[in-house]
Automatic annotation (TrEMBL):
Role played: Probable transporter of a GTP-driven Fe(2+) uptake system.
A GO molecular-function descriptor: GTP binding
Binding-site positions, Mg(2+) 1: A22
Identification of the protein by name: Ferrous iron transport protein B
Domain of life according to the entry: Bacteria
CDD domains listed in its UniProt record: FeoB
Amino acids binding GTP 2: G35, K36, T37, V38, E39
Positions of GTP 3 binding: D56, L57, P58, G59
Organism placement in taxonomy: Bacteria, Bacillati, Bacillota, Clostridia, Candidatus Avichristensenella
Organism: Candidatus Avichristensenella intestinipullorum
């Protein structure tokens, strides 16, 4: 079967990844925002007996690369060997998207323009004449609504025709420069020719060299032999006097003027486009006065729905799972398993895994879809816009707000997502501070502590308090970012382009299925996989008693002085240490240490849990210190390994563990001191 390589390019937030998924059948959630990759994603599509290898490039505004995303896209389009390109554009803001379209046409005439989101544009009164646009650009143009599949067949037909090597390339629109520039470009192109296979056309390369594009010059120096590159440099020196210094600026202005003329012919705006309702929403959600309160209210609403909806299902699931323990133990005994093995598997591995599943699954099944709905509606970029000024004042980058939001799901994913930050200094700051945002593994402990000691069964009170904890996490992130940017990682904050996409109506059904499959079940499976062996080890530590003293007791007794200094006790501090593989198991570890063999028999009832903890000396101060230390302490093992991989240094991994721990310890010391002063 014949195979053709296709590059899929486009601005951020134009539905490019939706087109990619629809064509290939893959379901990677790729792109430039938090939870999406900077790397090139690939997929296969078969049409009319030809296999197309599609490369989903990171979203880019221009081939004049100023970010890591744009560098990846430019390098692939130039040297990736693609036989044709598909450029995805947003029908609702076509004029801005045409800047990239015109650049790609100049580079690769075998291109199809996919005008996506035509359904959304139509709702806003915007109509794109695909035939008129095709006539002006000189290449096929397909109007699509990729989410519903509209126009994808036409896109594949056009791609089949354009990428056919036996057919002549389309006569794509190519901006022309003044005579002196064109003559200079021809001279440099002759010095470049003949180019090896897989290189872009010589005229495009010559113009980039005349514009003093250092990245292209470096790429050519690395790929051409020394003699040819010397001829190119000689040709450049000879024509340089006839080239204006502002050639690149002139080229950019010319492309934007051309885009304006094309849209005047091909686009009809019958409505008001980005209308008053969206403007009012933006004023509410991003203004200095209301942006932060609106963000906190939305977060509180998400937590309220999560807490109110998860309480009863958690009790049902816990009862069902713990009810299986006795039959499981009987089955193991019937198979001849010794008593110690039966106890280790049922009272250790199974009980802890059941606790984690019962406590995590219902809240995550509600929280992740709600969070994904906000993401798909276009709200997360507005969070970054709202917090950008605060991060700038702390010497960090506003994109850190996006990676911070990712940390609410998983800190390891948040650390990986820091790749979207271009500055190495600011990227490292974001990685080191990401664990100040509580991940899904810490939510069960926080929710349980708030419900047992502060909010009771009132979901609204619990939601408000949990929102306050998240706000404190944001404050700690800003404080730690300021500290790092003024000590270990000094530097000037960088600027970046942040596009606020239009508000979109999420497809609720697809969001629920995707979030349950890709987030909830994935995270739960990983947590249970860690919880079961951890429970087994904990049962052994709780029951092995050399010299008449249990191993777990030896550990907790040794940690007790430090734990009490932090307002907790040795059992809880030991639980945090032993919970290093996964934060989900911290509270089960503490309960197992308190109750030994009777560990988790009555966990569904929070009143019973509170009675157990208060019987072992817990007070509201203990619970508050435990809550704060859960918010700010070393990240889990997966996050630490991710931090080591992304930073390339064990030193920075250790710094990422020490930084939140020091902040958490300081908070606990303050709470203990204030409590002693008030009660003493």
């Amino acid at each position: 079967m014949q195979r053709r390589s296709i590059a899929l390019a486009g601005n951020p937030n134009v539905g490019k990844s939706t087109v990619f998924n629809a064509l290939t059948g893959l379901r990677q959630h790729t792109g430039n925002w938090p939870g999406k990759t900077v790397e090139v994603m690939r997929g296969l599509c078969v049409y009319d007996g030809v296999e197309y290898a599609l490369a989903d490039l990171p979203g880019s505004y221009s081939l004049l690369a100023r970010s890591a995303e744009e560098e990846v896209s430019r390098d692939f389009l130039c040297f990736g060997g693609a036989q044709a390109s598909v450029v995805v554009a947003d029908a609702a803001c076509l004029e801005r998207n045409l800047n990239l379209v015109l650049q790609v046409l100049e580079l690769q005439p075998r291109t199809v323009v996919c005008v996506n989101l035509v359904d959304e544009a139509a709702r806003r009164g915007i109509r794109v004449d695909a035939e008129a646009l095709s006539a002006r650009l000189g290449v096929p143009v397909c109007a699509c609504a990729a989410r519903s599949g509209e126009g994808l067949d036409a896109l594949l037909r056009a791609l089949s025709s354009v990428s056919d090597p036996d057919r002549p390339a389309p006569r794509a629109l190519c901006p022309r420069h003044r005579r002196a520039v064109e003559q200079a470009a021809r001279r440099v192109a002759r010095a470049l020719s003949p180019l090896p296979a897989g290189f872009p056309n010589a005229r495009w390369l010559a113009l980039r060299l005349l514009e003093k594009d250092e990245a292209i010059a470096s790429a050519l120096a690395a790929r051409l032999d020394a003699d040819r590159f010397a001829r190119v440099r000689s040709a450049l020196e000879q024509v340089r006097p006839s080239i204006p210094d502002d050639l690149q600026e002139h080229s950019v202005r010319a492309r934007y003027r051309m885009a304006e003329r094309i849209c005047a012919e091909a686009v009809r705006a019958e409505g008001q486009g980005y209308g008053p309702r969206q403007l009012r929403l933006d004023r509410l959600l991003t203004s200095r006065l209301t942006g932060i309160p609106a963000m906190l209210l939305l977060l509180c609403a998400v937590f309220y729905i999560t807490l109110a909806g998860a309480n009863v299902p958690s009790q049902w699931l816990s009862g069902a799972l713990l009810g299986l323990e006795a039959p499981l133990a009987q089955g193991l005994s019937a198979l001849g398993a010794p008593a110690w093995l039966t106890g280790a598997l049922t009272q250790g591995a199974y009980r802890v895994a059941a606790w984690v599943a019962a406590v995590m699954l219902p809240p995550m099944a509600i929280f992740f879809p709600l969070f994904t709905l906000l993401e798909d509606a276009g709200y997360l970029p507005r969070v970054a816009f709202t917090l950008d000024r605060r991060f700038q004042r702390c010497g960090a980058c506003g994109k850190q707000a996006l990676t911070m939001c990712m940390g609410l799901g998983c800190n390891a994913a948040g650390v990986t997502g820091c790749r979207i930050i271009d500055s190495p200094r600011e990227r490292l700051i974001a990685m080191l501070t990401n664990s100040f945002m509580p991940c899904n593994g810490r939510f069960p402990t926080m929710i349980a502590l708030l419900s047992m000691f502060f909010a009771g069964t009132h979901a609204l009170a619990g939601a408000v308090m949990l929102t306050g904890v998240i706000a404190l996490g944001v404050g700690l992130t800003l404080a730690a970012s300021w500290l790092l940017s003024h000590t270990l990682l000094r530097g000037v904050p960088s600027s970046f382009t942040l596009e606020l996409p239009p508000y979109r109506r999420p497809q609720v059904g697809k969001v629920i299925v995707r979030s349950l499959r890709d987030r909830t079940l994935f995270v739960l499976g990983r947590a249970v996989a860690v919880a079961a062996p951890a429970g087994l080890v904990l049962w052994i530590l709780s029951n092995a008693a050399p010299g008449g003293i249990r191993l777990l007791s030896r550990l907790t007794d040794a940690l007790d002085p430090l734990g009490r200094a932090l307002g907790m006790d040795g059992v809880l501090l030991g639980a945090f240490l032993l919970g290093f593989p996964a934060n989900e198991i911290v509270l089960p570890i503490a309960l197992m240490a308190y109750l030994s063999r009777e560990t988790l028999s009555a966990l569904p009832d929070l009143a019973v849990l509170r009675a157990v903890l208060t019987a072992h000396g817990w007070t509201a101060t203990t619970a508050l210190c435990a809550l704060l230390f859960s918010l700010a302490h070393w990240p889990c093992s997966t996050t630490c390994l991710t931090l080591r991989r992304e930073s390339g240094s064990w030193k920075w991994m250790l710094a990422g563990m020490a930084l939140p721990t020091l902040f958490g310890a300081a908070l606990c010391l303050c709470v203990r001191a204030v409590s002693a002063w008030l009660l003493g």
